Amino acid sequence: MRRTSAAAPSPAGRGDQDTGVGLRTEFPFRLPRGYVDEHGTVHRDGVMRLATARDELVPLRDDRVRENSAYLSVVLISRVVTRIGTVDDVHPGVVEDLFASDLAFLQDFYRRINAEGHTRAAVTCPSCQEEFAVDLAGGRLGES
Q1: 42-49 and 81-84 beta bridge pairing
Q2: At what angle are helices 100-111 and 72-80 packed, to 10 degrees?
């Protein structure tokens, strides 16, 4: 097993940070393309938890990261993504098999929830130039 129970968020930690009910520690997401498993099943919906200091430190001792610093994001993402579809053992091999656009999405999602504390992004409509916020955790733009 790649995580200990101490590293997993507790059910009490799943509150909503914006309402002051508690600290939100898990964030659902939908991958743009999806992870394709060995049976050809596409998995798009997943959950990422907040990173701990340990999550950011442990990969630095990984030999793969020492040999290639770009591998850091693969190891880090595999530590904080708790589920993609029905896949709940998200290890570096799973992350390696993601499409590049999905890995880029997860890297941005990680930065948003850990550095900015939310999953919203400011966007501008290309037609009317109106500015508004979208939540990246849910489906694709235009879906409800």
Answers
A1: antiparallel
A2: 70
